[in-house]
Amino acid sequence: MAEKEFDTGGFDFSEVEKRLGVTRRTFLTFCAGVAGSLGLSTNSAMAMAKAIAQPKKRPPVIWLHGQECTGPSESLLRSEQPSLEHLILDMISLDYHQTLDAGAGHKVEEIKKKSMEENKGKYLLVVEGAIPVADGGIYCKIAGETMVDLTKEAAEHAAAIVAFGSCAAWGGVQSAAPNPTGAKGTQAVLPGKPVVNIPGCPPNPANFLGTVLYFVTFGKLPPLDEQNRPKWAYGRLIHENCYRRPHFDAGRFATEFGDEGHKKGYCLYKLGCKGPETYNNCPSLEFNNVGGGVWPIGVGHPCFGCSEQGVGFNKPLFSLADVKTHTPPNAFPEIDDRSDASGASTGAVALASAAAGAVAGATLVTARKLNSSDDGSNSDDQNG
Amino acid sequence: MKRRDFLKNSLRAGAGVLAGAVVAPDDAEARPNLEPKEGAVGMLYDSTLCVGCKACVAMCKEVNGMPPVTISEIDAWDEARDLSGDTLNVIKIYKDGAGKTKDAEVNGFAFEKRSCMHCVDPGCVSVCPVTALTQHPITGIVSYNADACIGCRNCMVGCPYNVPQFQYDKTFGQINKCQMCNQKGVERIDNGMMTGCAEACPTGATLFGTRDALLAEAKRRMELKPGETYNYPRGDVSKPDSYHEKTVPAYKQHIWGEKEAGGTNVMHISSISFDKLGMPPLEERSAASVAEGVQHSLYNYLALPAVALAGLSFVVKRNADKAKDQKGERS
Description:
Helix content of chain A is 40%, strand content 9%. Chain A is of the alpha/beta class and 384 residues long. Chain A is elongated.
């Protein structure tokens, strides 16, 4: 990619090159990529690059873990973007993260309390994992305090709250019936607080990164849908952008694993694909920048609906999805629609005209003959 | 013969024919509805299972070798709005208000399939003057023979569901209608296969089978309680390709085609009342059974036309004789 494309406005990136250990070119390409996936212009990419390059703008982040497998953090760390972990750690000031913190025990807890106190109203709270509320929330404790209390305490003065992963967004696997611990999503325990949901199991790190970069750059959150998911990432059903969609429309389905249709890459709907009821950007971003069609549907397995509340972990894996694309208005004829009989073809018109002409001609001839025969009979009569 | 006399006599002859018709119904005992054929095959369309993927529409065109119907400039995909000379099967939508909830009458939407219902007592077969439309004695499939058809399009009027469609855009058009993928050159049923639409359907919304088995399945679904799960079969009801589990919707307690106008071999069930899904108001008595009583006895052994012809001939002969006499007097 040519550097000329970026109008850096004479901004000096040498600091950031040294700090992150990446070349200026790699850094700008990364920012442009993120801006591109958000649907933003190259100007925004520059704004993003500058925001990251100025360390004083880095917002402090408090990262809480609840009931979960640390999948979201793991997927974020394994993101294959160049030096992504450096960028993550350098564009934000990760003050507290139970998995990544070098320190441990009371020391770390102290740092967290201190950071929250110092950065009141400025820090970003990231919640990862569900929050159990049954029996006073005793099923998940950190440093002797319940997850419910910790979340409420951290949310009190947070500038923004991000629920990262399906567990944090709506409860995830442990919220499925019978849910003995009363696991809930972040929004459910923080009524009235705006929580940005980045669901997925694990969520796509790009969806998190893009949202956080947007926040860092513009100081506000990107547009959200009614479930508080960023629209740029969760605005469309997987079914809408799926490259197996033409097979769905043509009625070509894989009916079992390994059959002819499955080998030919037919639609996986009949095998229980939840793409038609799951909002996510997997078809366009795939997963973890591995490339080569690496995401469930890409490798021939039906979508599990991991990011959709009430679908993943709730519906049986191979039961059929409710197709949500076809909510009206859509290209369906209405009950009363009559097909417009297309105009008669020229051939038919010619044929009809010819027939009409023949009848008219025949009538004329017959009439003449009748007349003449009448005359004839008359003359006969006269003769007789 | 004077014009005045001709008209007078014509009217008289007409009155004679009418009188004959009035007398005729005495012996024209209207026949009862035809009974379903013993080996009747059909389909069951469950609107609540339909997801509107139109796989059946695409498959139908493929099996029957029909071109896509395009309305817009884009010639890329099928846009058929209704049955036509080039479309034997179409999925339509019912929608009300916001149209948000599937299978809800108010502020909801639902899908409905339009294709030949394969009536047990088919009107099209009854009205066809040249037996171009026939009902198979075993399977009950209503099929069409283009070679016999004279293009009168009586069948289009005789069908309560508006199914037979004429190819108006062809120079030598013919009638087209679903023949259950069993017409000459396709013959899927004869070869032990199912209809194309039932095979393509991913949810089992279109289910193939014998009428008896399908009716039993439909009745079973009527008995289910909304909210419980049911293992829905796909493909052929007697030997399903696979099943899928789904929550039972609130079915309307009505199997369309069980009794309507003598019943149909293609039956529909739904959670929306059928008048909203565009089904015509039909009594249990088939139109064919009523009309045939009158029509067929009128033309029985061609007796009445023969009588009418004899009457007309008599009138003509009498007038001719009269004219001769007058001429004789004149000369």
